[in-house]
Amino acid sequence: MRKSKAAERSQWWSQRVAAEGSTASEGIRRQLGKPKLDPLTVLIREAAQNSCDAALPGQDVDFNVQIRQLTGNRLERWREFLLPGPVGASLGLAEALDRQPTILTISDRGTTGLGGPLRADEPPLEGERADFVKFIRNVGERKGVDLGGGSYGFGKGILYNVSRCHVIVADSRCIFRGKPQRRLIGAAMGDGFQDKGVRYTGRHWLGALETGIAQALVDDDAEEMAMSLGLPTFAEGQTGTTVAIIDVDLGAVRNGEAEQERTPESAAEFIASTMLWNLWPKMIEGVENRLRCSVKFEGFSIQIPDPAATIELKPFVDAYRKLSLDGEYDVPPRRTKPQEIGRFAKVESMAPIKQNYLMVLAAPFSGAAHHCARMRQADLVVNYVSGDPHPDEAIQYGAVFKAGIDADRYFSDAEPPTHDDWVTSGLHGTALGVVRLGATYVKSKLKPSVRDVDADLHHEAALAPLAGRLSGLVAGASGDGAGQPNRNGSRRSGRSGSRSAVKPRIVEGPQLIVHDGDALVVATVELPAWPTTKLVIAEPIVVIDGGIELRGLLEPAEVVGWACLETGEHRVGSQISVARADSRKWVVSVRPPRDAVVRLTFVVEDES
Predict the structure, then answer these.
(1) I want to staple 362 with a disulfide (CB 3.0 to 4.6 A). Which of 274, 384, 471, 526 is the partner?
(2) Which is more confident, 136 or 556?
(3) Distance between CA atoms of residues 136 and 119, nearest Å
(4) What CA–CA distances, in Å, run from 239 to 99, 107, 159?
(5) What is the model's pLDDT at position 20?
(6) Is 538 exposed, middle or buried (0-12, 13-18, 19+ CB in 10 A)?
């Protein structure tokens, strides 16, 4: 296979330690310290923050993550571009490509792209953003985005940390001095080393060698290379950025005493969960520069629900909308500037009967919500602070605290590089006063309401919140197969890791019909195109007024069977085996007990 011209022009260039001193690559990677968050969560938060800061005015942002293994011709194209690695360095790049590595790509569209000068020593024009230099070349320079999520750019180290060889490739289309330009460059942050008596910082760039350094491939060369590598495309006139992380470490989950490495599917599910818990303020309807998030693994999509339709996030979404629409400044004003440090709102709702499997994966807390989501003007969740749980286990509450415009920079100064807390140590003066006041006020308000909840709340629960509370049952979003009780009260043994968060979706119904004198609940179910054969089990849940789930107290509901809309095939019983090539739309029929409501939940497992 012949090497492309763009690949032939590309070479690695390694940064020498300057006589006056240089920043070591290891130091940049370690700026994040030892965050409490999962590395994939840190990655998604940092990438989404960069995308939001680069959003074009008045446009929504498409924020997409894809995970796939490199094989065949595509792997060869990556080998041609990346190899040979930097001379003298020990990145392990060749070894990584020999094991058919997994790459993770993060792309945004509807953003400015990485514009500005290509060299760090070239000053930008007045009013020009030096995004390329700040992302690719420099570390520790303020982004210069008013009320943005980032600060000094140290968080980008996570991109290199989750790569086992510490290598990324950035592909961007921007408007540079009035003209569209495509730019593609490779970058690495390995360890410092010596070669032939010369010291190197451990930082490397891969591109066209010009004026003594590796420059980005531009225009036709960049287009050719991006197409050869299979990177996401750009529509006509579209700008944005794609970052590909080579030989990504997807992390592991604890299974009893042992750790189990994440598969591309389980990592994609975890990322979708991370998006919901951390990015929901930018994902809901009606917000400016809304994030339209998607996650794929090996071409298969993870279904990401609307945050407002998930019972776990609904009180937070409602609280956010309340403080945004009412415009109330609940936090007592300070005597000196900034007087208004932020807004606060709290909403109570019904707690979930059981949590959505997808929502559990990256949940910052367990059980019913009694927390406040804290955020700055960037509308990205910093963290969740816990308060007193509600004495009624059927009720939860969610609150939102959002920093005020004039106070935003003080809260920003209190954030570590991972932007996941507001830390007062090291603060003084106005900053210390502002951050302490915000924390004290939030803590004082995180208590259940003292009013009688029976009337208003339970009336509300009978309507939309009840639908939300049962949404995990009705729409098949629950899927907690292993360890969940069956209708007879026994527990399915299940195998850890065999469940899937890519769930069946009810597209019509459920509705009550009469068939041959028999009352049945029927629903049309659309099954995802899973990459492997799955066992789908329909589990009807008997529910009485107030959303209380009953097991063993009433006559159980019975699943009569499944009927395929496309082929007319009938299958008896509660479960069906679905191969990759099988039809995707089925009607499931349930015989309900008298005087009770039946809701449907679906359990999806790998077929043994």
Answers:
(1) 274
(2) 136
(3) 10
(4) 33, 11, 21
(5) 86
(6) buried
Comparing 107 with 528, which gets the higher pLDDT? 107
Confidence band for 504, pLDDT divided at 50, 70 and 90: confident
Token pair 């009352």: residue: 519
- What is each CA distance from 89 to 10, 99, 191, 198, 305, in whole angstroms? 17, 19, 8, 12, 44
Confidence of residue 595 (pLDDT cuts 50, 70, 90): low
pLDDT above 60: residue 109: yes
Cross-strand pairs, 603: 537
Structure tokens at 407: 């106070």
- Domains of the chain, start order: 5-113+154-249 (no CATH), 307-456 (no CATH), 470-606 (2.60.40)
Query: Using CA atoms, how far apart are residues 301 and 549, in angstroms rounded to an integer?
Result: 31
The answer to which of 35-49, 148-162, 213-227, 510-524 has the lowest mean pLDDT is: 148-162
Cα–Cα distance, 501 to 266 (Å, whole number): 8
Q: Lowest-pLDDT range, 126-130, 228-232, 237-241, 588-592?
A: 588-592
Strand pairing category for 291-297 and 198-210: unpaired
CA angle 314, 301, 271 (to 5 degrees): 55
pLDDT for residue 469 is more than 50:
no
Given a contact cutoff of 8 angstroms between Cβ atoms, the answer to whether 381 and 277 are in contact is yes
pLDDT of 554 reads 52
Edge-to-edge strand ranges of the sheet holding 518-526: 505-515, 518-526, 585-591, 558-564, 570-572
Indicate the Cα dihedral angle 210, 214, 217, 218, nearest 10°.
Answer: -60
Helix (H, G, I), strand (E, B) or coil at 223: helix
342 with 544: CB under 8 angstroms?
no
Q: State the chain's maximal CA–CA distance in angstroms.
A: 90
Three-state DSSP at 543 gives strand
Of 285-294, 445-454, 572-581, the least confident: 445-454
Q: Would you tell me how many other CB atoms lie within 10 Å of the CB of residue 142?
A: 11
Q: Which carries the bigger pLDDT value, residue 415 or residue 1?
A: 415
User: How far apart are the C-alpha atoms of 458 and 551, rounded to whole Å?
Assistant: 22
Please give the average per-residue pLDDT across 384-396, as a whole number: 90
CB 557 within 8 A of CB 598: yes
The two counts, helices (H) then strands (E), for the chain are 16, 27
DSSP per residue, 98-117: HT--EEEEEEEESB--S-S-
Average pLDDT, the chain: 84
Please, is 168 exposed, middle or buried when counting C-beta atoms within 10 Å of its C-beta (0-12, 13-18, 19+)? buried
Q: How far apart are CA 488 and CA 168, in angstroms?
A: 52
DSSP structure string for 364-415: SS-SS-EEEEEE-TT--EEEEEE-PPPSSTTEEEEEEEEE-TTTHHHHHHT-
252-255 and 381-386: which strand pairing? unpaired
